[in-house]
Amino acid sequence: MKLNIKKGAALVMTVGFMLCGTARAQAEQWTAVDTVTANLQKRYPATPFKDIKNTPIAGVYQVTMGKNVGYVDESGRYFMFGHLFDMQSQTDLTAVPKDEANKLNFKDLPLEQAIKIKKGNGKQVFAVFSDPECPYCKQLENTLTRMDNYTQYVFLYPLDSLHPKAKGLAKQIWCAKQPAQAWQDLMLDGIAPTNTGDCAHPIDKNVELGGKLGASGTPTLIRADGTVSAGAMPRAELEQWLKGQAK
């Protein structure tokens, strides 16, 4: 078989140009990200920036600052905050990085300050900051009655500004002989504890902890991998979320 030198050379040159073009494009992207990083550090030296990435929009870059995800131009002067959507694929491009930015270390939670409720094999583990008078917390508890195989850690988290009686109820629940049963009796059946609530309790510590973690409302759920979600969910959505799928 004869080798066509001209065609072979042309093919090699074509592939070479393609590889060079790809390498050049990647280098330009990296250079742009490096430029954005340098500009941000120069303009805002006291702010820790991380995960600076390209977006599908030319000249717009995604940046994470603590628990915030924003978008910035190359100069670092102009910022946009909110969610970026790809309407063609119906994808929220901000959801995943925002979840990552807001993740907590579940192992750092003081679980001894929570009420433990195990159902079935207890495989799916999560914590929740709940207010005894919160209607959405009651909705969550009702949803959980139709689910199985989870371990729930309930941090009693009364929001005094919304529910003035919640702190007293939280103390009574914690001080009950069976706190888990007292919690479910109240949330599912409306049966309040009758004890005085006079015992050593972690309620004040829970309020302080929730504030530090950014739990501005109830229920606030924390999955075992540290992912945080605010608000009650329908059963199917909650089951998917506990399995690690996006909310």
Describe the fold and architecture.
InterPro entries: DiS-bond_Isoase_DsbC/G, DiS-bond_isomerase_DsbC/G_N, DiS-bond_isomerase_DsbC/G_N_sf, Thiol:disulfide_interchange, Thioredoxin-like_fold, Thioredoxin-like_sf. One of its GO terms (cellular component) is periplasmic space. Keywords: Disulfide bond, Periplasm, Redox-active center, Signal. The chain folds into two domains: about 5-100, Disulphide bond isomerase, DsbC/G, N-terminal (Nuclear Transport Factor 2, Chain: A), CATH 3.10.450.70; about 105-240, Glutaredoxin. It is built from seven helices and eleven strands. It has helices at about 5-45, 95-100, 135-145, 165-175, 180-190, 205-215, 235-240; strands at about 50-55, 60-65, 70-75, 80, 85, 90, 115-120, 125-130, 150-155, 220-225, 230. A hairpin with a 5-residue loop joins strand 1 and strand 2. The longest helix has about 40 residues, at about 5-45.
Provide a concise account of the structure shown.
With 247 residues, the chain is of the alpha+beta class. The chain is built from seven helices and eleven strands. It has helices at residues 5-43, 95-101, 135-144, 166-175, 179-189, 203-213, 235-242, and strands spanning 50-54, 60-65, 68-73, 79-81, 85-86, 91-92, 115-119, 124-130, 150-156, 220-223, 228-230.
Question: Which short descriptors sum up this protein?
Answer:
2 domains, disulfide bond, alpha+beta, single chain, 20% strand, Nuclear Transport Factor 2, Chain: A, 247 residues
